[in-house]
């Protein structure tokens, strides 16, 4: 039987578990980045800025800026420069960054500016969630998008011209305090919580550094006794994060994207003994009108009589059987043999799950 290619199916073939470093499995509690946000003005645009009538906040910001610079705009005077745009500025403050260091920023228009290409961001304070200023942003934008519009209204846009970035565009003014050097213990939080992985991490740390160094708090957190001296703690963490651990096998899952038909099956999926028969029934209805002639010497007339023909056909596809402990590769091969398409595979997997034969979590997204 001819195989139908499952073009949208992703096969994750089972491989032997590989050792991974602790730095790839866990994060150190308290060592994290922080988000910064600010509001500012971009100037120097080539007539592609905000329309002050439809973006009153841009006009208000411009008036406030001019007042701070000692320029008084008479009341009632209309300000409508097309080379100014109101923008939001956001950035991510990495852990342990110090005052004077620079970070990248992203600038996005919040008005009706058509493009930020060629603009410069004026001095903008970036605040954290606590309201404190942690960085000051300023500089020339790098915009990857392009927009052009003709007099007849035709318009061409490439990427997003109303958003840009400034590499090293903000200077850090305040450091975020962390408990890395103060806490007597370091807490490792597993990226994928698992009791088996947590136990193996504890075992690997105690085997490498010494008994009693680490203990598991729960399936996600592991506490490690660390040196009190900050310099020694850095060296200790360097050794700790490079310890290799064999993580536990992932939970058996089948992920189905109902919109695209994509099916992802991980290596832990198993199928209990089951028999599956998959086929398709085709119903064909054809209309063949016939002419009805009246009897000789009668006063009848020729009429058209409808005639319908209904044919039912069913593909003779084979039944296949799953033996105990069938692996992913065998499941896919068996489904391929009966010529099932990705949508048919979804139906087969759902039926196996309802029958209790599919030993996996079936997740539909």
Largest sheet composition: 6 strands, antiparallel, barrel
> Which oligomeric form is depicted?
single chain
Helix content: 10-25%
Number of DSSP-assigned strands: 26
Question: How do the strands of the widest beta sheet line up side by side?
Answer: 4-5-6-11-8-7
Count of individual helical segments: 6
Radius of gyration, CA atoms, in whole angstroms:
34 Å
Query: Would you identify the regions where 5 or more consecutive residues have pLDDT less than 50?
Result: 1-16
How many distinct folded domains? 3
Distance between the termini: 32 Å
Brief rundown of the structure:
The protein has helices at residues 22-25, 56-68, 195-208, 230-241, 328-337, 342-354, and strands at 9-11, 20-21, 26-28, 34-43, 84-93, 102-109, 120-127, 133-140, 146-149, 155-158, 163-172, 185-190, 214-216, 221-225, 244-245, 253-256, 263-265, 270-271, 274-277, 281-287, 290-292, 303-305, 308-314, 319-322, 358-359, 361-364. It is α+β, with helices and mostly antiparallel strands and 365 residues long.
């Amino acid at each position: 039987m001819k195989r139908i290619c499952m073009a949208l199916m992703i096969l994750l073939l089972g491989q032997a578990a590989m050792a991974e470093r602790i730095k790839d499995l866990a994060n150190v509690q308290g060592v994290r980045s922080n988000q910064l946000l600010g509001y500012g003005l971009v100037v120097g645009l080539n007539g592609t800025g905000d329309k002050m009538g439809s973006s009153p906040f841009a006009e208000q910001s411009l008036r406030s800026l001019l007042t701070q610079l000692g320029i008084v705009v008479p009341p009632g005077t209309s300000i409508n420069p097309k080379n100014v745009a109101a923008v939001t500025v956001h950035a991510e403050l990495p852990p342990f960054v110090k005052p004077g260091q620079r970070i990248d920023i992203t600038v996005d228009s919040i008005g009706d500016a058509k493009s930020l290409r060629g603009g410069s961001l004026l001095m903008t304070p970036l605040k954290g969630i606590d309201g404190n200023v942690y960085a000051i942003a300023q500089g020339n934008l790098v915009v990857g998008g392009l927009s052009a519009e003709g007099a007849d209204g035709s318009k061409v846009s490439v990427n997003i011209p109303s958003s840009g970035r400034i590499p090293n565009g903000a200077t850090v003014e305040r450091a975020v305090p962390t408990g890395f050097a103060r806490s007597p213990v370091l807490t490792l939080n597993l990226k994928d919580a698992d009791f088996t992985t947590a136990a193996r991490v504890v075992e690997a740390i105690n085997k490498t550094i010494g008994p009693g160094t680490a203990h598991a708090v729960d399936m996600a957190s592991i506490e490690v006794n660390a040196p009190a001296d900050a310099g020694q703690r850095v060296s200790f963490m360097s050794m700790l994060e490079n310890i290799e651990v064999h993580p536990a096998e992932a939970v058996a899952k089948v992920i189905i994207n109902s919109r695209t038909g994509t099916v992802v099956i991980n290596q832990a999926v198993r199928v209990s003994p089951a028999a599956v028969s998959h086929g398709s029934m085709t119903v064909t209805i054809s209309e063949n009108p016939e002419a009805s002639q009246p009897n000789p010497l009668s006063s009848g007339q020729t009429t058209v009589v409808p005639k319908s023909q209904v044919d039912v056909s069913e593909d003779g596809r084979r039944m296949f059987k799953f033996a105990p402990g069938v692996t992913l590769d065998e499941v896919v091969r068996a489904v391929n043999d009966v010529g099932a398409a990705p949508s048919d595979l979804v139906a087969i997997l759902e039926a196996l799950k309802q029958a209790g034969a599919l030993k996996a979590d079936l997740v539909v997204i």
